[in-house]
Structure formats: structure tokens, C-alpha cells
Amino acid sequence: MGTPIDHSAHYEFPAAIVHAALVDPDYWRQRLTKIGGPGATIEDVTTGAGTIDLHMTQAIPAEHLPSVVTSIRPGDLVIHRHESWKPLDGDRARGRFSAGVDGMPGKVEGAVTLAPGRTGTIVEIDGEVEVKIPFLGGKIEGMIAEQLIELFDAEQEFTTGWLGRSGS
């Protein structure tokens, strides 16, 4: 059993506008450029009617990693991310995400739900971090979960700015 990840992002925009951003390849390119870290790239993107499926690569430089991580896996941490969104169903949409790291026996997986809130839209992230390293796995999971929450907060801030600029 891994470490849970729970995060909520609130946007003062209707669900259709938030969803339109989340399935826009230009949104993703700009988001990755702004907060994706050094060398972040979109490896593959497929879009359809209100859908998107992305594969991205990001890296965390070794000097920004805790020693418990670099002692197990030296060098920069290369992260392979996948995210997908389905079309809106009324004013709701669902997505999935996953991530893995080169040379680490672990994974991050979860679901994303977009739904109306009291005002605007809520995007709920529900996932899990699992690192299969005896004795250290739980500690590393906790650190990864904390870093992911910080990343989700930065992504929420970027998305709020994107939605505001797009004249929504």
C-alpha cells in the first residue's frame, strides 16, 4: 500500500472553460515551459473531440533532491508523466494520470475529476505514490507526495492565470 495523494483546485470559471484549457495542447506546452523544470518536453500528444492524451518528460536536477533519493539513484531524476482527459459529460469530466522515474521501482497513479463547485469549478486529484524499496520506500513516498502537492499548487496557479488571460 502506497501513500495517498489528495488535492483540490478551485477555479472561478465554468467547467466547460476549465475543461477546454485542460484539453488544449497549447495550454500544456506553455504550462510545461513555465513550471515543468529544465528540459521538460511533451513527447506525444493526441487530441480528439474534447479529449487529450499526453506523454511528457520532466527532470529534477540532482542538487534539488534529498540525499535519501540520490543515495539510491544518483544523478538527475527523469520523470515520465502521462495525463489524459475524457470529454465533458454535462458539466463533469474525468481524467487519469501516472508517472514513473527512470531507475526507481515505483509509480504514481490516480484519477482526476472536474466538476462544478459552489462557485466555479473544482478539479479533484485522488492518487497514490508507491515506491518499492525495503525500509526506505515509505519515507521516499512521503517526500514525493509532498513535492507533488507543491507541483499541483503551481499548476493550479498557472491554470488560473491561463484562464484569466484567455478572456474566459
Structural class by sheet pairing and helices: alpha+beta
> What is the assigned CATH homologous superfamily?
START domain
Based on CA inertia axes, which overall geometry fits?
globular
Helicity, in percent? Answer: 25-40%
Count of discrete domains? 1
Distance between the termini: 41 Å
**What are the low-pLDDT stretches, counting only 5+ consecutive residues below 50?**
none
Write down the CATH class.
Answer: Alpha Beta
Largest sheet: 7 strands, antiparallel
What is the helix tally? 4
Helix/strand order, N-terminal first: EHHEEHEEEEH
Return the CATH topology: Alpha-D-Glucose-1,6-Bisphosphate, Chain A, domain 4
DSSP E strands, number: 7
Approximate strand percentage: 35-45%
Q: Quick gist of this model?
A:
This protein is an alpha+beta fold and 168 residues long. The protein is built from 4 helices and 7 strands; from the N terminus they run βααββαββββα.
What does this structure look like?
This protein is α+β, with helices and mostly antiparallel strands. The relative contact order is 0.23. A 7-stranded antiparallel beta sheet has the order 1-7-6-5-4-3-2, covered by helices on one side. It contains 4 helices and 7 strands. The N and C termini lie far apart (41 Å). Helix 2 crosses helix 4. The chain has one domain: START domain (Alpha-D-Glucose-1,6-Bisphosphate, Chain A, domain 4), CATH 3.30.530. It is globular. It comes from Rhodococcus zopfii. InterPro entries: DUF2505. It holds the Pfam family DUF2505. This is DUF2505 domain-containing protein.
